[in-house]
Write a structure and sequence with these properties.
This protein is mainly alpha-helical and 301 residues long. The chain has one domain. The longest helix has 29 residues. It is globular and about 50 Å long. The N and C termini lie far apart (45 Å).
Length: 301
């Protein structure tokens, strides 16, 4: 594989999406560290698993949207690999299979090692979740019943990036359940859904023309703005409530991300051209990653 081919594949991996994918693992692991239950091996396996899953999802999306014709000349944003012909359908299918296998090669050991000391039923549950994550990553745009084409992408992003990622690694490390962890988990989930919502707002015109009925297509651009405000503002309330419940107000330092998010909301509200939202995706994705790093810094000091 020459240098140009490597660059093509790296572009297909969509490296800019990877920081967002690890935000939940960093947050959940930091919360486990705060109760003296951090496990470096589980952390490493979890990070690898979510990175493999994110790349798998990106490749499968490239393939699915390319085959369905959704990625076409009218698409906003970077040109996709299948759309441009730089990667063949056959090669992309092989890459999807490879990253599905890699995801399971780290996800199953993560489930096995993390459930030591728990019931065998918990092992089966986490192995099932690992398999479900792989299937969800593939079926977002691939297949006749791709859920991304029926407006369900936001729900899956919230669950997998937020609830499962944060609560899952916390449970595997601590071997205990704390209901309040749902609050920071929901924060990550909502901010992750905000990134997807921005993506769908940007692609509204082309998605609608291509029959990709995202939530934005279903509700329309104006209501999508209100929905976006909900996704961005609600985490502020959740972290405040979390800090109150556990009586540790240092977590409020994470709300400094709103120095970035408030101007972002204003730009979204004032936006008239969906295409102009493309730069905002990276801002919210990196802000979510920054949120997880602030949480980690707080529990380390």
């Amino acid at each position: 594989m020459n240098g140009n081919q490597v660059k093509v594949w790296l572009n297909a991996f969509r490296l800019r999406t990877l920081p967002l994918s690890v935000s939940g693992i960093i947050t959940g692991s930091s919360l486990a560290f705060s109760v003296n239950q951090f496990d470096a091996l589980l952390f490493s396996l979890a990070i690898l698993t979510v990175l493999f899953l994110q790349i798998l999802s990106n490749l499968a999306n490239d393939l699915g949207d390319g085959l369905k014709g959704t990625d076409n000349a009218n698409r906003v944003g970077p040109t996709r690999a299948i759309q441009s012909g730089k990667i063949s359908v056959s090669a992309m299918k092989k890459a999807v299979i490879l990253f599905a296998i890699l995801s399971l090669c780290t996800g199953i050991p993560l489930a096995y090692l993390g459930t030591q000391g728990l019931s065998v039923q918990m092992l089966y549950i986490f192995i099932g979740l690992a398999i479900l994550c792989v299937l969800a990553a593939i079926s977002y745009t691939m297949g006749k019943k791709a859920y991304g084409y029926f407006g369900l992408g936001d729900v899956f992003v919230f669950l997998f990036f937020g609830i499962l990622s944060v609560c899952g690694i916390f449970l595997l490390m601590t071997k205990q359940w704390m209901a309040e962890i749902i609050l920071p988990a929901s924060t990550i989930g909502l901010l992750s859904a905000a990134v997807l919502n921005l993506n769908n707002m940007r692609d509204l015109v082309n998605d609608k023309a291509s029959g990709k009925n995202t939530l934005v297509v279903r509700m329309g651009f104006s209501k999508a703005k209100l929905y976006h405000i909900f996704l961005i503002v609600t985490p502020l309330l959740l972290i405040t409530l979390f800090s109150y419940i556990i009586d540790s107000w240092g977590y409020l330092f994470s709300l400094s991300i709103y120095l970035i998010l408030i101007p972002h909301i204003i730009r979204v509200v004032q936006c008239e051209d969906p295409k102009s939202l493309d730069p905002e995706l990276k801002k919210v994705a990196l802000t979510t990653f920054l949120f997880s790093l602030i949480i980690a810094t707080w529990v380390l000091i």
